[in-house]
Amino acid sequence: MPKVLIAGAGLVGALNACYFAQKGWDVEVYEFRPDIRKMEHVPGRSINLALSDRGKAALEGVGLKEYIVQQGVPLYGRLVHDKDGKTFHRIPYGQPGQHIVSINRRHLNEVMITLAEKSPNVRFFFEHKVKSVNVEKQELTVICDGIELTQKAELILGCDGAYSAVRRSLAAYPRFDFAQEYIEHGYVELNILPKNKDFALEPNAFHLWPRGDYTMIALANRDHTFTVTIFAPFRVFEEQMSNDSDIIKFFEENFHDALELMGRAHVLETFHRVRPQSLVSIKCKPHHFGKSVLLTGDAAHAMVPFYGQGMNCGFEDCLVLSEIIDQHANDIPKALRVYSETRVKDAHNIIDLAMYNYEELKDLVNHTSYKLRKKLDLILNRWLPETWIPLYSMVTFTRIPYSQVVQNRKWQDDLLRRVHTSLFLGFLAAGSAIGYLLVKKRNLL
Length: 445
Ligand SMILES: Cc1cc2nc3c(=O)[nH]c(=O)nc-3n(C[C@H](O)[C@H](O)[C@H](O)COP(=O)(O)OP(=O)(O)OC[C@H]3O[C@@H](n4cnc5c(N)ncnc54)[C@H](O)[C@@H]3O)c2cc1C
Hints:
Structural class: alpha/beta
Cofactor: FAD
Strand order of the largest sheet: 6-5-14-15-16-13-17
CATH class of the largest domain: Alpha Beta
Shape: globular
Keywords: FAD, Flavoprotein, Membrane, Mitochondrion, Monooxygenase, NADP, Oxidoreductase, Pyridine nucleotide biosynthesis, Transmembrane, Transmembrane helix
Pathway: Cofactor biosynthesis; NAD(+) biosynthesis; quinolinate from L-kynurenine: step 1/3
Pfam families: FAD_binding_3
Bound molecules: flavin-adenine dinucleotide
Largest sheet: 7 strands, mixed
Radius of gyration: 25 Å
Helix content: 40-55%
CATH topology of the largest domain: FAD/NAD(P)-binding domain
Number of strands: 19
Distance between the termini: 97 Å
Number of domains: 3
GO molecular function: FAD binding; kynurenine 3-monooxygenase activity
CATH superfamily of the largest domain: FAD/NAD(P)-binding domain
């Protein structure tokens, strides 16, 4: 059987391991961290994640969808909290019943590692740091206890996240395009504990506090807590949240209702303990190198988290790769070329959409024109479910390639613009005709 070396046992590395385990390949996964199943506290990014249809489809491919979805909390739409802390409005995600699922990152990762490990042909090597990849020799070099080990395989997958060592070692590869952008915003995670052993806020909604330049979100967890994330420019963290009284003042002014639920002591303790984390967006092209090396997940396309698609897109990578390898009867060099051709443009499109969605989350949701467009999209979608699918629904509730999603949205916008212009001209013409007839009639009288 062919062999695959996987760099990174995060979400995408672990799912890739499950896919190749199913195919009967020899799988070796090299992970920098200790085994997270044995760790008390796992440092790192967001505690919970929104799973949508692309991610679900990929989990279904390894038989995990039902189990993971059951472990999560369904979210049916956004619940937008106004500044007064008392009023809010709802924006459904799609048609009744359509939802995303809030799931626990650590649990998901653990379940996938355990599933992959059940296959005798899969081995995980924890506390092994990937150093580099050699495309020509089809080799991966890892370091453990200061000793370098080099392994060879038919396929090498870089799934080692946004700061990928595999990608870094490919920087000098001919015609490799790479672009990285840090946005001016950072984020801090907080918590809302249960109230009387129950959820302190409505659990089945994505809570949103849009405040123009900054925003805050909260997603429910199964243990009745909420993970709250505040996103703000680093400048705002530094200038307006630099000491205890400023932090409390900032939260009182902007997120009064949430502050009461989080508690002042928790907010201050968190800001003393953690610093705002940065958010990076990474585009590269191609995703494959030579006959055997491929980047997937954040290593290939880190994106800002505002569309909740980073993991979903990474999971879809695993599914697409598996399908393409099957279609090409294990001809890996050909499969990798085909994968790169289709997936690069999709990755670039969702990276751009994720940037755009931040405008929506921090500000646009408050605009009347935005709310009207959302309503119009949902009405048209109900009448023409196959033809008119709103942007958010195409990204979240379908597997339409991201590049096609962007094309579809363009024709929808063009059509609405033309209808708008025609209606305007029609009203203008009708108004002029009526005016002319009235004037004429008065002159005749
Ligand atoms: C605040 C926030 C919220 C988010 N919310 C969502 C969401 O709701 N929905 C969604 O779909 N996405 C979300 N994302 C994005 C999501 O977290 C990522 O897209 C996802 O984690 C990518 O998985 P990955 O396996 O590619 O990378 P990672 O999760 O980063 O895993 C990489 C793994 O590689 C290991 N590694 C790194 N370097 C090495 C090395 N040199 N050698 C060996 N191992 C190494 C790491 O230890 C890690 O285990 C969010 C991101 C952030 C920051």
